[in-house]
Structure prediction request, 286 residues.
Amino acid sequence: MHSPMFSLEVFPPKRNAPVGTIYDTLDGLEGVDPDFISVTYGTGHSADRTATARIARTIHSEYAIPVVAHLTAQYLDYRQAEESLTMYRQAGVAGVLALRGDRNPDQEPTGVFAHASDLVSYISQIDPDLTVYGACYPECHPESPSRQEDIRCLKLKVDAGVSHLISQLFYDNEDFFRFLDITRKAGITVPIEAGIMPVTNAEQVRRMVRICSSRVPRTLNAMLERWSDDPRALKEAGVIYASEQIADLVAHGVDGVHLYTMNHPVITRRIWSNIQPLFTTTESAQ
Ligand code: FAD
Prediction:
């Protein structure tokens, strides 16, 4: 275990990608020492919990790294949720990240799990020993009517059984510090990992602005403008920007950092080599 915690996120390769792609990612992460790796779960047409379970099993059994499997709930019924949890258990997961998932306009939600907290309550009921993680939003979830309402719902989710939160990505640490302050005042005391997504290209940032309403601070905006026609330079600047964000977060005593690798092992390794000395290794909690 590290202090603060350090974790990574990977996603299952697309259905038409070569089978070995995930091995390229995981092999490429050699030398990076995360406390756990989380594996995302596709939503809508790309939903395939067997893919998440298979990759979780690989990470657990072949790479001996603790793994957290994501599960999005709004299109599941009880039977499918239970099947997924059984599959994840058999894959050896250390925990499940319980999510509602994004809305898919082509699919009607089942109405069984309207919010992530419904899935959290269900897991706490049928598998009380499973560690449940939850998502949180330093810049407020885009669908929330207000910050206050978002935090109220977050508290409900934690009270339902979430023992560890991982944040949406953000580009300005001040947003995260403000959020931490509000959550702690609201009585949410579980560890909160800060989600960092290194900038790899300008389109990726535009996408995050569109989907997550992420705010782009002046420094990052300048980087995007300056190196809009030079992807290599932008990637280099992205490594520096993410490393500096993490150094500042650690200096401020955050509980942990969750790096969205986007399955880019080289960038992840570069960042880890910059920040590794900031993470103290402690006795394993396993
Ligand atoms: P919820 O916690 O249900 O919140 C969604 C909205 O509903 C918020 O506005 C909240 O304030 C509101 N709300 C919550 N509870 C209540 C309530 N009881 N009453 C009224 N309103 C309520 N998506 C994927 O498809 N696959 C993934 O693997 C994935 N991984 C993610 C990992 C992280 C760390 C994060 C931050 C996000 C991830 N997402 C993933 C995206 C996520 O699915 C979306 O952000 C989704 O829109 C919300 O999911 P949630 O679990 O946070 O939902």
Q: What stands out?
A: The chain has a mean pLDDT of 95. The radius of gyration is 18 Å. The longest helix spans residues 231-251.
